[in-house]
């Protein structure tokens, strides 16, 4: 029996995973592709964006969203039943994409492909790690001097980032257009030094890559786990207590540009890692998307509000533990 190839897409918050998924699905070359998308918070933004993008040949039930937790922690409860349901369809997919949350560790997910319920029916074609080149160049995942001065210090961002790289079969050095040539070469070299021999690094902008390169790696990653070390290999389990997420509901927004300026200030002041969501703009029939990685903010109108849909402005905030939720809400609701 032919095993259905599955590509696991990992990468830190805001690296460009959802953009990559959309690109691969838009260029599916006639293949039936199913997607499992996982988000850390309890509000699904990425799955909603993908479901509303109108990709030809992509039915609503081809996109399955698992929110409120990382797949690496909910393998038995959510991932396995979802995979079984996909494989049991009368016309199962030709290829499965799994977009993990930006805080997920890919290795526990790859391990799950050994479970008896699915091991003879599906294989990990490859683990793709999407990396934000500008964030790496800015030292987002490096130890700060304060951290280095502390004995036995932990850097949760670095641990997640390194685990994602260690499990990768291919790395997309994304947002390469945000760096000059010298910065890009330096970042590329530093990244390559962290990878297993033979792992290819591809420079991309907006996660654009030929599906013939990204899919069809035939890595069978589930049979190669020993070569993919993790900071958590000696632990029975792990948690994400170093991070937190919450959602803020706003009234209709009269001036998105003014809100963007306020968002930038709040993100910088509270060191927010990721902010994303949708805005209802006064007098506009279309939904307005907001995506922020650090203080880099993008926004655009994506689709009309649907009949019966609540015109709500809602933003998801993700950061390290200890975010001052009350202060952030007060600043954005002012």
TrEMBL record:
GO terms for molecular function: hydrolase activity; nucleotide binding. GO terms for biological process: cobalamin biosynthetic process. GO terms for cellular component: cytoplasm. Signal peptide: none annotated. Gene3D superfamilies: CobW-like, C-terminal domain (3.30.1220.10), P-loop containing nucleotide triphosphate hydrolases (3.40.50.300). It catalyses: GTP + H2O = GDP + phosphate + H(+). Keywords: Chaperone, Hydrolase, Nucleotide-binding. Residues 243-334 form the CobW C-terminal domain. CDD domains: CobW-like. Coiled coil: none annotated. Belongs to the SIMIBI class G3E GTPase family. ZNG1 subfamily. Zinc chaperone that directly transfers zinc cofactor to target proteins, thereby activating them. Zinc is transferred from the CXCC motif in the GTPase domain to the zinc binding site in target proteins in a process requiring GTP hydrolysis. This is Cobalamin synthesis protein cobW. It comes from Magnetospirillum gryphiswaldense (strain DSM 6361 / JCM 21280 / NBRC 15271 / MSR-1).
